[in-house]
Amino acid sequence: MSSADPAPRLSIIMPMLNEADSIETALVPLQSLRAQHLSAQVEVIVVDGGSGDDSVRIAKPLADRVLSSPPGRARQMNLGAQHASAPALLFLHADSLLPEGAVEQITHALIHHAWGRFDIALSGRSRWLPVVSWMMNQRSRLTGIATGDQGMFVSTASFKAVEGFPEQPLMEDIALAERLKQVSRPACLTAKVISSGRRWDQFGAWKTIRLMWRLRYRYWRGVSATQLAKEYRDAR
Question: What mean pLDDT is predicted for residues 178-199?
Answer without folding.
Answer: 93
